[in-house]
Specification:
With 260 residues, the protein is an alpha/beta fold. The chain is 45% helix and 16% strand.
Length: 260
């Protein structure tokens, strides 16, 4: 029963607990009232069923909020990897949805986000949640690692490729008022170099949650492709990944994208 509750993003779970504490959400629970609190048409029935199950055990209102928060705290203390899928559902296998995991990590981050992707499409839509979160949280530090690709046969200079990418990113793709730090791998731009591209797809939020996935930041990867990943809430692992990114930057193996 409770799995349906933990299948929704963390920031939405916080809304449900707060609504229960304040009395905004009360017995009898309706899918429509829950959808209004979540800000989406999805999951209302599933969450209503979970809360109704708690009510049958005489756990409602503030007590239900405390119960759900206690489960949240226990889950964070004893981390286990969550399987994350895009594509067709597999009967008998419980897995998180790629889009929802991205939304959870980016929409609930409090202090830091590290995100690396090989490709993204429709920047204003893909970065909308993260841009809004940065504007809401002035202390949130965001670092994006993005790939700048030289197409086969393109003889444009590396500096011009970087400039064109930067102009498009800042003027078109990035929707927020505050700007993240952006880094790229210069090897992909050197026609005579050793080659190599920034191909990693990963998100680390608050140096606590780490998501490693085959999915790029695209609608196809979220909703249509067959993609697989793991979400782990483990501080040691999260710090290991973010520290690796920092070392690449400190050693100038990744270069900063100029701002326009």
């Amino acid at each position: 029963m409770i799995e349906a509750y933990f299948a929704i993003p963390m920031h939405q779970r916080k809304r449900i607990a707060s609504a229960l504490e304040s009395g905004l959400l009360a017995v009898p629970y309706s899918a429509s009232s829950i959808q209004s609190i979540l800000g989406t048409r999805d999951d209302g029935e599933a969450v209503a069923s979970v809360l109704a199950g708690l009510d049958r055990m005489a756990i409602a209102g503030a007590a239900a909020a405390a119960f759900l928060r206690a489960l949240e705290s226990a889950a964070s203390r004893y981390p286990h990897p969550d399987l994350v899928w895009s594509g067709p559902e597999v009967p008998g296998v419980h897995a998180r949805d790629t889009r929802r995991v991205y939304e959870e990590l980016l929409g609930s981050a409090e202090s830091s986000v590290w995100a690396s992707t090989f490709a993204y499409f429709d920047g204003p839509r893909m970065f909308e949640l993260l841009g809004r979160r940065m504007d809401e949280r002035p202390d949130l530090r965001v670092t994006l690692l993005l790939n700048i690709q030289r197409r086969r046969g393109d003889d444009t200079t590396a500096d011009d490729l970087v400039r064109k990418f930067a102009e498009r990113f800042w003027k078109i793709d990035w929707p927020g008022k505050r700007k993240p730090r952006i880094y790229f791998d210069p090897r992909s731009l050197d026609p005579n170099g050793p080659g190599g591209v920034l191909h990693a797809k990963a998100v680390v939020s608050d140096d606590m949650n780490v998501f490693i996935t085959s999915a790029n930041l695209t609608e196809a990867a979220f909703d249509h492709n067959f993609e697989i990943g793991l979400l782990v809430r483990d501080r040691a692992l999260a710090l290991s990944v973010s520290s690796y990114f920092r070392i690449l930057i400190d050693n100038r193996l990744l270069q900063p994208l100029p701002e326009y």
